[in-house]
Amino acid sequence: MPFNPLTSTTGSSAGGSIQSAIAFASQKTGVDFHYLMGQAQLESGMRANAHSAASSASGLYQFIEQSWLKVVKQHGAEHGLDWAANAISTNGSGRMTVSDPATRRAILDLRNDPQTASLMAAEHASDNKTAIESSIGRDATSTDLYMAHFLGLGGARSFLKTMAQNPDASGAAMFPTAAHANRSVFYTAAGQPRTLAQIYARFTDKLGQGGIAIPPIQLAATKLGDGADVIPGASETSTADAASWARATIDRLNSGRTETASLLRPTPNTARLAYMMLASMGG
Q: Angle between the 15-29 and 114-136 helix axes, to the nearest 10 degrees?
């Protein structure tokens, strides 16, 4: 859900630590750093403790409760959250449940932890990318992925397929519940309903603006293992690829250009290498 500054609060994490948390999530999952930064800017204004007054959405990436429980169930164990993943189950109607109220609250509160939220947002984006591309038959753009976060995967599929056939269709007519909770997205200031194409274009612009608003990357070199700065077994080819991507990332952030064709890196090692290089190349 797009960020509402009137209903947000700022946690103890400063912008730099949030940026580092996002960078760590990108390193670990291979999901594009620029996309994750733009999404966080659009969702919460880069505020870890942002809350929505219109839904259960909370945190840096404004996950609603059911979406959060689902992604933690699917990917929590991969990131040291076995206790959380194991506590979540699916009931007969398909809803995610946690039997112990205190445990449920603890899991939901993780939405306000920048590192956990960033990791789950990255995993969610990766899952959605695969599903969307199989549905629409083309590479997913950053806006496509954002639509899946905003409307859910099923809603995004309907949105994108309908937009391809009828871009002038009313978004509010297709998604009345979402429109009620996000009036500024689906209606103009004068109260006119926006078309699917207009909604999509506005999100594309805002995702790009999220990247432009972030200063050039200033990251410390990632330490792997016992303080090693180099990934064992990294080939010259992967190092060259990482250097090329690191430089392209810096250029893209400095110029405000948004790349949508390659949202996922080929391998996690390439992404890790790239971010270790960003400190010396961008600072």
A: 50
